[in-house]
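Subject: Protein record for review, amino acid sequence with backbone structure tokens
Why sent: The fold of this protein is of interest and is recorded here as tokens.
Notation: Tokens come from a learned vocabulary of local backbone shapes, not from coordinates.
Attached in line: The record itself begins immediately under this heading.
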Amino acid sequence: MSILLLGGSPQQPSSSGRLLAFIGERLVLQGHGVGKLDVRELPAQALLLADYSDPAIAQAVQAVAAADAIVIATPIYKAAYTGLLKTFLDLLPQDGLAGKLVLPLATGGGHAHTLALDYALRPVLQALGAKQVYTSIYANAQQLGWHEERGLNLDEPIAKRVQAGIDELSAGLSVLAGARQSAVAPSVRASHADLQPA
């Protein structure tokens, strides 16, 4: 099962990017295949013009299509996710997240925008056909400590929420993998039956 880390911050480095990387590292430790896409690295003009002929844009859209799960991270500006992320999501087809599991993350300066993920981003993810959008994780600047050598340090409340999100996503991927195996098994049995002598 593959997971795509989708970063929607226009800044590098950023708190949301660090949180996204932190979660990605832990998913790798659980044995998941993880890839990363930072929207800010896409060619700006092709992104704004929705130029699907641009190789980088086509590859980015295909990366979303190929993933079983998306961990999507954004800073919150003026009670909404970034315009950069919105521009990319607008590139996806109407069912661009069909069958996928999605874990939304956001960072902000304080508690005022805690619900921004649920009233701004979640409806968009659901409209794109996501199979499951897990409980949003919002962290403010005071909950995310950064040290150049030790990396990201989460305070206890947000660390628990992050671990719960990782556990939910891992469990969902296990269920999804089981469902796919069950769907394949009958066809495999049928093909073997066809090979049996009459």
About this structure: DSSP finds six helices and nine strands in the chain. The longest helix spans residues 156-195. The beta strands are 2-7, 33-38, 69-77, 80-81, 101-108, 132-133, 137-140, 144-147, 151-154.
